Amino acid sequence: MRGADSMPLYHSIPAALTTLYGSIDGHARSGAPVFCGSAGSLSQHRNQNGTEYHVHRFYGGDGKQQETYLGTGEEGKKKAEVIRAQIAEVKALLPELRLLAREGFQTADQKTYATLASLHKHGLFDAGATLVGSHAFGVLVNQMGVRAAAYATEDIDVARKETLAFPHLPEKGFLDMLRDSGIHFVEVSGLDLKKPSSSFKQAGASRFHVDLLVPSADAKVRVVGVPELKAHATALPFLGYVLGQTQTVTLLSREGCCPVRVPVAERFAIHKLVVSRLRTNRSAKSGKDIFQAAVLIAALGDKFPGAIGQAVKDLPVSARRHLFAAASAALDLMQDHPRACEELREAMEPLKKKAGRRQGTKP
Prior knowledge:
Radius of gyration: 22 Å
Helix content: 40-55%
Largest sheet: 7 strands, mixed
Structural class: alpha+beta
Strand content: 15-25%
Shape: globular
């Protein structure tokens, strides 16, 4: 329980910085260049025959220097000119990105940024894939212009509600798209070796991994195929709710920024409360779910009244009991945000009455 020394869950970021973030967000979503790692630099070399060729050197998601061959002659020169302009554009943003990071905006680490940048470049987020989990939380607090406790995770959760709407079916599968980040991903074998993998990790001792998720049609967790990505995903209950309303927002890192699709904040928050009750023997993650939900609900209650009420109203009937069970923990964290507490309580009250009437009805 939070006592007399409780503190606000968030602090508003000054308007000048939120305006700067808005400018960067608009720039990124308008088609700004994105690299899967650092912007790097260009160099010219000569081969054994004396022919000049161009290369792009940069640091990939694994932190190692990589080199991309751009070609020789006029073709190589034209490619180099395009890359040179893109490098200059990205590097011009770096001082502003560093400023936002110093002032409390959430930023993705090197591996996460390279991985999500690769998925962006392959068109997954434009096609409907959605970033969920803690990295989506970081994107959402930035969008809302609030400063909150930083998150720490080595997980990336990518979900799709329905078949991704690619203009053309991609030639590469999900695993190869992840590997284009410069990180060598491998499939993770589960306890049941007969089931295909829906999780991908960096090879070796690293815990960095990506999970592919889809909604389940019922309360069962299962592994299903995702044909357009040549992969499999874990189907989870109630995931369809949080994927029902999404938006494109910019992910920040110290090496660049890129657009990603994330849920709207109110559905993300309510879904987090529901998920906190579904986890078994994972109290630490349940606590993080509740904390992230409380932060977003507190900010929404103060800044966007009515949003939480609508999100609660839209929650599937079968998920409401989980929300009721988790709400008290969130309300305890939100003591310094009475308006948000009132909105959450008022949103749940009619649903509780309906549930009570159903339970009291005789067959």
